[in-house]
Amino acid sequence: MQKPQKIISQSGSGKYERINEIAVLISRKPHSISELAEKFGVCTKTIQRDLYEVLAKNGAVRNGRMWSIDKTKIKDGLDQEERTVINILDNISKTMGANFYSKAHVLLEQITNQLNHPILTNISSEKLSEDDFINFELLENAIKERSLVQCEYAGFKFKIKPLKLAMFDGFWYLLFLDTNKNDTFKKFHLKSITNIRILEEKFKLDATIEERIKNINSAWATLDKPNTARALLAPQIKKYFERKPYAKQSITGLDADGSVVIDIEFTNLMEIKPLIYYFIPFIKVLEPKELADTIKDEIERYLEEIK
Question: Which of 1, 15, 131, 307 is the most buried (most CB within 10 A)?
Fold first, then answer.
């Protein structure tokens, strides 16, 4: 059952604790003033003040002798822009499966009950099950507490230092250091991790690793010092990089024909290669030579195979 939202919140006040409880009760089913007075052990005038002076301004409505909550009349204190942002988040959560959405929707609905904007989002992502949420919470706590974790993956046991939970291209991953491989940086697909156990042992994290982990934006990324790729963008695609800047990008020049030069940081060629292939023939790699040669060789092999 969906947990009703609390309409008023002022900690440390018995009056407002009672009002919150009244709000929860009448949001479930209508109650009369006398029923509420008896339940809370106060006089009917006290309940009347709660309803007329406070709750009536926050969605409470009277129908005859009975009071209930009309969610459309609840004042959430949000402006139009803030409400739109929440609606976008609510729509995005639908793409992550029924389990995730059922939880996200309840939380977002506690901020505003006006989750009905004409907003459509279509982000492809894997669905999280109830078991996935349990594992997510376990790993999240281990990351916060800097606790070592023992788990299984692909039939092997690991003892790891969990760093971050991250979503790349619609898939959830656990980023970690493998203690059995001299703290080698690795990533596991979250849904494929089993038998997770948080250990009592704690670990410390080097400041350099902490800083570099913030810049991880791909399942192919590493914690190595980043390199820079330089590419020429044709006018036809320049606008896409301006509208949605690629991580760690900077546009460094504008030619007379409208093309621009762009610099993008990467730690693994596979971070940058899909981007290049997506925009061919409107993108040309200038540097590094290794990347330009790799793209050229792979395209030539592909063309040779399909002849």
Answer: 15
